[in-house]
Design a protein that fits this description.
heterodimer; A: Beta Polymerase, domain 2; five-stranded mixed β-sheet; two-stranded parallel ribbon; B: Rossmann fold; globular
Chain lengths: ~160, ~170
């Protein structure tokens, strides 16, 4: 489907909840919505017969410094179109609904985002760290993260030739 | 088979005695059957597999992999050690029977390598294990790993294992 047609269709289906919608490079459409609309919007995008965004391609979190964002990349085999859904979250309380029930594959994506950015996903069945040890403190991909000096007695820094 | 081609018979006829020390005989046996632990952590393990394969073939030197630490003499730390993996690695090392040796294979195992500034990587496996041979390279070629194995063999041959430490 042509990008302009898709934008028109999305505007018609999601009239009340769209915060912003724009064309992106590489045949993509960026759809920005509010936090509490996420689950209904993704449900519509997946379940709607005409849209059919059934492929959960990717999910990622971003730290913008003063706010967080969670980005979902979807694909519709029926339309042959990509769609990027973006939700902004507050810095103090980064929490958003889990879409794990809707897309089973989102399970580990959300755990990874929680692990590295500390964004909590409400309703997730097993929200624990995925990559880092479970007793790790802090979220390493945050902009204000301070690297620890040691972990369980293992020094985390090694002098380089230039420092000696 | 004619008698002159049979080593045992020839030894019996020409020289009926071999003089050596127990240490040396033991070391010769130990050095020529260094079994390494079947363990790979990252891309270096691909080179490790190549080294065990038919072209480099460290089976020539009596080395082959064992799939359990309890039968291994040598641990080749082939790859990046993350902080989550480090306790498991240490546990594997502790399960190996003495005498045991460690090769830190590749830049990551030596000093953290490419990931030296990251938050979750052990900056050199010598922070958690005693390392005998540091093997540079990213990744090292099979020939280099063979050389590291020969260095381990030299080390084993020079040990005086049965003597008391002075």
């Amino acid at each position: 489907m042509k990008i302009s047609d898709l934008i028109a269709l999305l505007k018609e289906r999601l009239r009340d909840v769209i915060v912003g919608i724009e064309e992106m490079p590489n045949n993509d459409v960026m759809l920005e919505i509010k936090r509490h609309d996420l689950l209904p919007v993704l449900t519509t995008l997946k379940k709607d017969k005409e849209l059919g965004f059934i492929s959960f391609t990717n999910q990622l979190g971003v730290d913008y410094g003063d706010s967080f964002a969670v980005i979902y990349n979807l694909y519709s085999f029926a339309l042959g179109n990509k769609l990027t859904v973006k939700v902004f979250l507050e810095k103090d309380n980064p929490e958003v609904d889990s879409v794990e029930r809707l897309f089973r594959g989102a399970n580990w994506f959300e755990r990874e985002t929680y692990d590295l950015l500390g964004i909590r996903f409400k309703g997730h069945g097993n929200l624990e760290r995925l990559l880092l040890p479970s007793d790790w403190e802090g979220y390493p991909l945050r902009k204000d993260y301070v690297y620890p000096e040691e972990y369980h007695g293992m020094a985390l820094k090694r002098k380089t030739l230039f420092e000696e | 088979m004619p008698a002159q081609y049979n080593l045992v018979n020839r030894l019996n006829e020409d020289s009926r005695m071999i003089l050596t020390t127990v240490d040396r005989a033991l070391n010769l046996a130990r050095a020529n059957s260094v079994w390494y632990l079947l363990m790979g952590l990252a891309c270096c393990s691909i080179e490790l597999m190549q080294t065990g394969g038919p072209r480099a073939d460290i089976d020539r030197f009596g080395s082959l992999f064992r799939a359990t630490p309890r039968q291994s003499d040598l641990m080749i730390v082939a790859g990046t050690v993350s902080l989550k993996m480090a306790p498991r690695l240490k546990r594997l090392y502790e399960q190996m029977a003495d005498p045991k040796y460690v090769i830190a294979m590749g830049s990551c195992a030596n000093c953290g390598g490419l990931f030296n500034l990251s938050y979750s990587i052990v900056k050199g496996v010598d922070k958690i294990l005693p390392v005998d041979v540091y093997l540079p390279g990213c990744p090292p070629r099979p020939e280099a790993l063979t050389e590291a194995l020969i260095k381990i063999q030299e080390k084993i041959k020079n040990e005086r294992y049965l003597r008391k430490k002075e």
